[in-house]
Specification:
Helix content: 40-55%
Shape: elongated
Distance between the termini: 102 Å
Strand content: under 5%
Largest sheet: 2 strands, antiparallel
Order of helices and strands: HHEEHH
Number of strands: 2
Structural class: mainly alpha
Number of helices: 4
Radius of gyration: 40 Å
Strand order of the largest sheet: 1-2
Oligomer: single chain
Length: 153
């Protein structure tokens, strides 16, 4: 750093002004690029909107059906619940070939109370049980069920 008394008269300020034509040219180019981008984007949106409102039947494309509104949503829900209650409260086959059946929830609770939970992994920690599980890749997904009843439901 130069001590204040030893500074020359020529140092300390610029001897030429900023390049005004260059700054104006750069500003004009930025504005031109912004304007071109704006009009290009607007044109693309107009084309996309026009294509979206065009009738697809003219081009041989199929119409998608309009969504159907539920006129009586409470009745539809009640009907769905009735179907679920019938399924949860009756006997039936889930997979006859595999011998998997469906039993009513109340009966399943009674059987669980009488027989108790199966004694799986007695004396093992959770980590040991998790490590003993077969990986999902080795066995196909099969529903867990009880043996088939003597007669058909």
């Amino acid at each position: 750093m130069i001590p204040q008394g030893e500074q020359k008269a020529e140092s300390g300020h610029e001897h030429q002004d900023a390049d005004v034509p260059g700054v104006v040219l750069v500003g004009a180019l930025v504005l031109l690029i912004v304007a071109i981008s704006f009009f290009t984007a607007r044109g693309m949106l107009d084309v996309a909107r026009d294509r979206g409102t065009a009738e697809p039947a003219h081009r041989g494309e199929a119409h998608f059906p309009q969504p159907h509104l539920e006129v009586h949503p409470g009745a539809d829900l009640a009907e769905s619940k009735r179907g679920d209650e019938v399924e949860l409260g009756s006997y039936g086959w889930i997979d006859r070939k595999a011998g998997v059946v469906r039993i009513p929830v109340e009966r399943a609770i009674q059987l669980l109370m009488e027989r108790g939970l199966p004694d799986v992994g007695a004396g093992q920690t959770r980590l040991q049980l998790m490590q003993a599980r077969p990986s999902a890749d080795t066995q196909p997904k099969q529903p867990v069920g009880s043996p088939a009843p003597e007669g058909s439901p």
